[in-house]
Amino acid sequence: MHLRNYKYSEFPGMPQAWEVEKFSLDEVNLLVGQNASGKSRVLNTIVALSMFLGRAQPMTWRSGHWELTLSDETNVMIITLDVEDGKVVGERLTLNGNDKLLREGVGGGSLWYEKQQEMVEFAIPETTVAMIARRDSLQHPYLEPLFAWAERIRFYHFSTDLGRQTLHLVSPDTKPSNFDADGEVKAVVDPNAVVEQYSSGYQKFSDPFDHAILADLASIGYDCEDVAAVHAEGMPFIGGNLPIMLQVKERDLAVPTTQFNMSTGMFRALAIIIHLNYSLMSGIRSTILIDDIGEGLDFARSKSLINLIIDKCRDSKVQIIMTSNDRFVMNEVSLEYWHVLSRSGGTVSIFDRNNSQREFESFKYLGLSNFDFFTSGAFRGPVIH
Length: 385
What we know:
Blueprint: E1 2-10, E2 18-24, E3 28-32, H1 39-54, E4 63-71, E5 76-84, E6 87-95, E7 98-104, E8 108-113, E9 118-123, H2 130-133, H3 144-151, E10 153-157, E11 168-170, H4 194-205, H5 207-219, E12 224-231, E13 242-250, E14 257-258, H6 264-282, E15 286-291, H7 299-313, E16 318-324, H8 327-332, E17 338-344, E18 347-352, H9 357-363, H10 370-375
Parallel strand pairs: 2-18, 3-16, 3-17, 10-15, 15-16
Antiparallel strand pairs: 1-2, 1-4, 4-5, 5-6, 6-7, 7-8, 8-9, 11-13, 12-13, 13-14, 17-18
Helix pairs in contact: 1-3, 4-5, 4-6, 5-6, 6-7
């Protein structure tokens, strides 16, 4: 399933109150706004929810109210989750208009049981999210797509090193393996585990995985003829394990370039390309969040990387949500993918072609840049000449 509508708020009526008004999302999305407008914070709230649902993490949020819609080709799921003082005080899940879970107040509620074909009452600890606590693929199979969505969210902070200083450790006594007990390639959750992600991808897809990575690198200006995970020579064993690193062979250089010798921008691009191709080649629905896309890259490569991501995700099973306040990035990404964040106090309003179609459609006839659309405030209403 993919995220179609989203709304979030916390600490209502208090000085620290903060709210993101409801907005709609498509397959490709770019959140734009000034510094401190809430771009990163929106992504953080989505990730937090995925951690509670997909990885059964304990409730650490003091206050939060989530409202979201997920859908695929056949189903529409609407979820609400209310947390106050670290306690779950409300949950509701409807599937195609039918209530499947209802919870009001702390503790108990009712949940649809498939075998009995009825809603059955339950009582659970007040700090527990019922949707994950009652996971049962036989009695509650309708919850599985929700868990799959949450488990398949990946969040990358492009302004960080994205794992450039992180190695993959393998036992020297066995062939390096990234397979789980069932013989499946393990999912890599840690965004910094790019070496492990590459190793998993190569074990799963073999040479086509390398070919996709090299083609994407070439499309953004890095002409490489080989990519590989190799022993980090000269580095000691760590906890008895062999350290593995990434390297690429640039066509105009005599020797490979290791991840430690790559420029920060080059490694960030390589990391995103590896993670993205793994998701695309896996052929399963997933959601990728990238904060500050293009940060640290020169203009040409930043533009090329963003266009590459959009082209690869546009008609795929991967939903992409990126953020930026870089004028060059904003000028290169079509307004059809934009969601403009405008914050007033603790309230974030979001303008896009779904809720401001006239403003977005009319601006393209003025002959100005996308960045002008942002700085002029034209997304709020007609531009006055």
